[in-house]
Amino acid sequence: MECYVTYSVKGFYAFNENNELIGKRLFKEDEMLEKLIEIDNKEIPREESELIEELSKDYDSIIVESNKRSSDYNSDKVKVKNPNPAGEYLRSNSDLDVDNEIYQKLAIYRMKKAQAGDDKHLIQAINSIDEIDESISKLIERIREWYALYFPEMDLIKNNETYIKLIYENKTKEEIINAKSDAFPEDMLDIEDDINPKDLDIMNNYAKSIYELQQTRKNIIDYIDEKMESIAPNLRLLVGASLGAKLISHAGGLKRLASYPSSTVQIMGAEKALFRHLKSGDRPPKYGLIYQHPQVRGAKWWNRGKIARMLAGRISLAARKDVFTHDFNPEIFNEFTAKVEEIEKNNPFPTKTTKKRKEEKQKSKKKHKKGKKRRRK
Question: Is cis: bond before 85, omega within 30 of 0?
Fold first, then answer.
């Protein structure tokens, strides 16, 4: 004989094949939300276990409507089916249920849980890096132009971090020269301070703000590395923390990235080129964000497509391990680099087909540029 088990906000109900109620285990009123959260987290509440145990005495098969797997119940009699007749019958008889207040609270809990996911924080962090980089670039351009009015020889310092640090840590021209004397030829220097102290103070404070922003960027980079090590160690080892975080951000979450086929992962970030291919018939893109991986970017041009395709497959597997099995493979990067070396070794020269494709791509680019010029005219 078969019976069916389902649940509502009140508790668990069991029905026979004629939709007759044969058993129930209700939640305490003040525990309803807590029990629904347990179910949401794929746990088996005490009430469900008790009802199944009771039914097992009289029934050969118990069909449960559940978000769990049959194996989670540790019983040969239990099978999961969504929806099952009991659930459909219960939902069509509202008198067995209660108002929507508990459902609303559960919906709020689910929203908070979704927002609080570790990968959501990671996405915000990696997106902030691009914005910080853009801001730092503009601010440094301004401070270089401004500080040159006082100390034009500072343009000899090409490294932006060193430039800002020297201004931040040393208030005057003389202090900067003493701190890094090897960078400034003596015959070029004019040590006289011919500037209003207030002007110098405001420039020093401006440099301090940039320096603090640079330190914030470093802290966020360290945070991203730690977060990737925590939630996606396989992906981090394979592509690095920064690129891994960008892929997660572009997909909208680690779980979504894990659900993508490798063909989608391969062209993530190259959507414009893909739409152009669909619209005008240009060659489809071979890679998107994964071009930033040194093994793809540094490969010979005729091998990049093969390596990108292989890397995309490895990324999909790494993400799935991080999400579903949590098995860490310390050799994942070495295995990938060994395959890259094999591809490079087996394809030392471009084939006629790859040469022809490159020529077609160059022609397509020229056509695209001409089309743009005509539209401008």
Answer: no
The whole-number pLDDT of residue 96 equals 45
In the numeric block, the tokens 């069909």 are attached to 63
Q: Whole-prediction pTM value?
A: 0.65
Q: What is the DSSP letter of 268?
A: T
CATH superfamily of this structure's domain 252-376: Nop domain (1.10.246.90)
Which H helix or E strand runs over 28? none
> Quick one: 201 exposed, middle or buried, by C-beta within 10 A (0-12, 13-18, 19+)?
exposed
Q: What CATH number does the domain located at 118-227 have?
A: 1.10.287.4070
What the block records as the tokens of 266 is 């391969």
Domain boundaries, the chain: 2-114, 118-227, 252-376
Question: For the purposes of burial, counting CB atoms within 10 Å of the CB of 288, is it exposed (0-12), middle (13-18) or buried (19 or more)?
Answer: buried
Is CATH 3.40.50.620 what the domain over 2-114 is classified as, yes or no? no
For residue 367, is pLDDT > 80?
Answer: no
**Cα–Cα distance measured from residue 133 to residue 128, given in angstroms and rounded to the nearest whole number:** 9
pLDDT at 152 > cutoff 60: yes
| 88: β partners | none
For the CA atoms of the chain, what is the radius of gyration?
31
Q: pLDDT-based confidence at 97, cuts 50/70/90?
A: very low
Cα(326)–Cα(193) distance, rounded to whole angstroms? 62
Distance CA 146, CA 152 (A): 9
